[in-house]
Design a protein that fits this description.
With 190 residues, this protein is an alpha+beta fold. The protein has one domain. It has three helices and eleven strands, in the order H-E-E-H-E-E-E-H-E-E-E-E-E-E. The chain has helices spanning 10-21, 72-75, 119-123; strands at residues 32-34, 40-42, 82-88, 92-96, 104-106, 127-129, 136-137, 145-149, 155-159, 162-163, 185-187. A hairpin with a 3-residue loop joins strand 3 (82-88) and strand 4.
Length: 190
């Protein structure tokens, strides 16, 4: 005679399945160049490498109420080429890019190289500019804006020596679901 087991919660099974799809971030190199003006767009998701969200670095997305959405007032005015500031009661002020989407930094990056490519870059699309274009500073953004060259040749925007990324699991302007992911991803601070 067997004893029936309690049913496993669906969200636990989904979390385990999602974890199995995660791919680790790989290291890249590049150089620094100076900024000018022009449109800023998130890089398209990379098709190479793992096809999932990067091993602890790109998983999750539900903050269970710990990081409420930012005040959209400042972020709604962010144009495609402007880094702007948003505020959150729990996180304070932070940088936003196109459409008021939250920007993040990765602890494993250096001032001249992104350590996020492949599956990692699918979960954390880099903020890139095309050709000679670059990002500009909006009101309250006083740090140095530059670009680095990624392994694929694209130019990623960096702020005060930190390459910038969006988080694919942020569904709308002001979402901060990427804060603290893996202990190495943080909202970009002005």
């Amino acid at each position: 005679m067997s004893v029936p087991r309690p049913a496993r919660p669906r969200h636990l099974v989904a979390a385990v399945a999602a974890t199995l799809l995660f791919a680790a971030c790989s290291y890249g190199a590049g150089g620094v160049s100076s900024a000018s003006s022009g449109p800023v767009t998130p890089a398209p998701a990379a098709s190479a490498g793992g096809g999932g969200y990067g091993g602890g670095y790109g998983g999750g997305g539900d903050d269970y109420g710990t990081n409420p959405p930012a005040s959209p007032a400042a972020s709604e005015g962010a144009g495609s080429n402007v880094l702007a500031i948003a505020e959150s009661p729990t996180l304070g002020t932070f940088l936003v890019g196109q459409g008021g989407r939250t920007l993040y930094t990765f602890d494993k990056d250096t001032a001249t190289a992104s350590a996020c490519s492949g599956g990692c870059a699918q979960a954390w699309p880099p903020l890139v500019v095309e050709g000679a274009e670059a990002a500009t500073a909006g009101a309250g953004v006083s740090g140095a804006i530059a670009t680095i060259t990624r392994d694929d040749g694209s130019r990623q925007v960096a702020y005060d020596g930190h390459p910038l990324y969006y988080y694919a699991a942020d569904g709308k302007a002001g979402d901060t679901n990427g804060e603290g992911v893996g202990g190495v991803w943080h909202v970009a601070k002005p």
